[in-house]
Specification:
The chain has helices at about 15-25, 45-50, 50-70, 85-110, 165-170, 185-200, 220-230, 285-290, 325-340, 370-375, 390-395, 420-435, 440-445, 455-465, and strands spanning about 1-5, 5-10, 30-35, 110-120, 125-130, 135-145, 150, 165, 180-185, 200-205, 235, 240-245, 250-255, 265-270, 270-275, 275-280, 310-315, 355, 360-365, 380-385, 400-405, 410-420. By secondary structure, the chain is an alpha/beta fold. A five-stranded mixed beta barrel has the order 2-3-4-5-6. The chain has a five-stranded parallel beta sheet with strand order 8-15-9-10-11. The chain is globular and about 65 Å long. It starts with a strand and ends in a 6-residue tail after the last helix. The structure holds flavin-adenine dinucleotide and 1,4-dihydronicotinamide adenine dinucleotide (NAI). Flavin-adenine dinucleotide (FAD) binds near residues 14, 37 and 149.
Length: about 475
């Protein structure tokens, strides 16, 4: 084993949290090393998360449009078929191009990249099992843990990534399953369920709770569910999976009402387990060093991302907060800025969440239920995409914009958008909230016509006055 000279910053994990922290650290003049064990940079997000899922969502949407929407727009095609291997190649191309891109950014910014699994042996030393064999000790004044998260397993369900898959297996199925059962109606279940449903699978989603995506605004999630049902996705709510038997050619699931009751069975070719993710700290040596971990397995940090052990910091999915790539990136930048004595800060109240189904569902801030529970007096302004000229002209008008504003001050508390490109147009609301804007500020901002964003302006008008077009 060989030793390298001391770093200012050593980052363990090369996902959106870790690689962004490493680049920012180097830009701020820190001598920086990033350790990643997967053999490619970009973490869960780039390799088996955000990017491949969005590639497949786009490809499957194109197929669906070609089949169902093209004729309505007067585009005639004789036959449309899925070429799954080609679709997978396209997805892989996006992933490898982007991971190589990060390697390039590391070189450009002079971040040292070590391929291997890191384990903290002291608060200033990481021992690395190198992928190429052998080991190396890396020293750092500061060690940032950015090891992310892993799929949450369910008792009695063994993921083999063939018949019983996590999101990783669901992104690489060799064949289109005729029956897909999804456990958990969250982000992954609805996105991957949409992909395979569009390609022809019969999809049933089993959800423990009484509705889909529990974190979402109640009104929006109800109409989101209706839209997905129109797309032939089936839901079994308030239902839990008791057991899964994969010993035969397919998979047999035994279900039971969440509150208890008579059991039923369900057959599937493939079962996707998407009931949440858990922080990943395995093999990091945190226990030996006395790094505090909460009851959910998350590393405890203060507002400067410092753990209870001086010199050890943590960011991203492995600490509390939404498990989202952009949140991990914000953590990474702020953490390193604070190390440099700058004023790093992450506003967790304005982290947007987007489900990339069709239509997309995007939100920022509080739901109406949360505002009510806090006892805040509020106004709601809504505008349906049915009344938006752009949405009508492209015949993509399912959904709405809903803005919740404080009654007295008109300050925006939450914005929920379901509709075409919701994940893009939400950022106007994110920026408005970041600047502490009132709903009237948005309403009085001139918006281009005809755009989908006009629905945001009209919903803002509706919070304190009347919209024009509805
Ligand atoms: P990760 O991306 O998990 O990266 C951690 C890295 O650390 C991994 O590469 C791992 O190999 C490495 N590592 C772990 N232990 C060690 C060790 N001991 N030594 C060296 N390396 C180690 N978020 C969004 O915002 N938008 C989306 O559209 C989206 N889609 C998703 C789709 C799917 C299917 C999944 C699973 C997730 C999705 N997410 C999405 C969530 C997003 O991927 C995570 O929030 C994000 O990747 C977290 O970043 P991170 O850097 O904290 O951790
Ligand atoms: P999730 O937390 O979004 O949803 C899990 C769902 O499973 C919940 O509705 C929950 O009630 C349900 N559930 C839990 N236990 C269950 C059980 N035993 N039986 C039936 N249902 C059960 O988790 P998911 O979808 O696995 O995704 C993990 C995380 O990854 C997300 O929370 C999100 O942070 C991130 N992600 C983000 C995406 C995006 O930003 N577009 C896309 C995919 C993932």
């Amino acid at each position: 084993s060989s030793e390298v000279e001391e770093n200012d910053v050593v980052v363990v994990g090369g996902g959106p949290g870790g690689y962004v922290a490493a680049i920012k650290a180097a830009q701020l003049g820190f001598k920086t090393t990033c350790i990643e064990k997967r053999g490619a940079l970009g973490g869960t997000c780039l390799n088996v998360g955000c990017i491949p899922s969005k590639a497949l969502l786009h490809s499957s949407h194109m197929f669906h449009e070609a089949k169902h929407a093209f004729p309505l727009h007067g585009v005639k095609i004789r036959s449309v078929e899925v070429d799954l291997p080609a679709m997978m190649v396209q997805k892989e191309k996006a992933v490898t191009g982007l991971t190589k891109g990060i390697e390039g950014l590391f070189k450009k910014n002079k971040v040292q990249y070590i391929k291997g699994a890191g384990k903290l042996v002291s608060s200033h030393e990481v021992s690395v099992d190198l992928l190429e064999g052998g080991s190396q000790t890396v020293k750092g004044k500061n060690i940032i843990i950015a090891t992310g998260s892993d799929v949450k397993s369910l008792p009695g369900i063994v993921i083999d990534e063939q018949k019983i898959v996590s999101s990783t297996g669901a992104l690489s199925l060799k064949e289109i399953p005729s029956k897909l059962v999804v456990i958990g109606a969250g982000y992954i279940g609805l996105e991957m369920g949409s992909v395979w449903g569009r390609l022809g699978s019969d999809v049933t989603v089993v959800e423990f709770g009484d509705g889909i995506v529990p974190s979402m605004d109640g009104e929006v999630r109800k109409s989101f569910q209706r839209i997905l049902e129109k797309q032939k996705m089936k839901f079994k709510l308030k239902t839990k999976v008791v057991s899964v038997d994969a010993s035969g050619s397919g998979v047999k699931l035994t279900l039971e009402p969440s509150a208890g009751g008579p059991q039923t069975t369900l057959e599937a070719d493939v079962v996707l387990v998407s009931a949440g993710r858990v922080p990943y700290t395995m093999g990091l040596g945190l226990e030996e060093l006395g790094v505090k971990i909460d009851k959910f397995g998350r590393i405890e940090v203060d507002e400067h991302f410092r753990t209870n052990v001086p010199g050890i910091l943590a960011i991203g999915d492995v600490i509390p907060g939404p498990m989202l790539a952009h949140k991990a990136e914000e953590d990474g930048v702020a953490c390193v800025e604070l190390l440099a004595g700058r004023a790093g800060h992450v506003n967790y109240d304005t982290v947007p969440g987007v489900v990339y189904t069709h239509p997309e569902v995007a939100s920022v801030g509080k739901t109406e239920e949360q505002v009510k529970a806090l006892g805040i007096a509020y106004n709601v302004g809504k505008f349906p995409f049915m009344a938006n000229s752009r949405a009508r002209s492209i015949d993509d008008a399912d959904g709405l914009v809903k803005i919740i504003a404080e009654k007295d001050s008109d300050k925006i508390l939450g914005v929920h958008i379901m509709g075409p490109s919701a994940g893009e147009i939400i950022h106007e609301a994110v920026l408005a909230m970041e600047y502490g804007a009132s709903s009237e500020d948005i309403a009085r901002t001139c918006h281009g016509h005809p755009t989908l964003s006009e629905a945001v302006k009209e919903a803002a008008m509706a919070t304190y006055d009347k919209p024009i077009h509805f």
